[in-house]
Write the structure tokens for this entry.
Amino acid sequence: MTLTELLETVPAYAKDLKLNFSALVQQTELNQQQIWGTVVASAIGSRNPELTQAVLAEAAQRLSPQALEAAKGAAAIMGMNNVYYRFMHHLTTNENYRSIPARLRMNIIRTHGVDQADFELWCAAVSSIKGCAACVDSHERVVREKGLNEQAILAAIRIAAVVHGLATVFDAEKPAAIGA
């Protein structure tokens, strides 16, 4: 199912999500790589198979292969880091954990091959979905240091919010059942 076809299955109660998505992928605060990389990373981070498959197919037409892989990499590494750093900074009060090295490989953060601001923006978007304040703060700060402003960052977070909302709908009501 294409992304357009999938969005056509959005039920009436979630029409705002469909309308928001259409507007957000046309916004001017972000360039096309930033928009579609955020959509990809957010879909993967939201973990709905139908949405992820449709987004990946659409994004393959809008992103370079390297940018598509980097967006997937941002979602993957944040899938790990968000759990680890949320534990370290928010779920435990035991300060001793913070002095122990993470001993987790995170090479993709430096070897993704796209603009660093874009990759960090995608990491911030996924981290907002996963609820890791430490990761959101860290990646948002780097994005600003790399030259993006608060409007651009918030534009990416809006994309993450809408993509996650769509994933929630598709988890609750499988697209084939919605369209039937």
Notes: Residues 65-91 form the longest helix (27 residues). The two ends are 14 Å apart (CA to CA). The chain is about 70% helix and 0% strand.
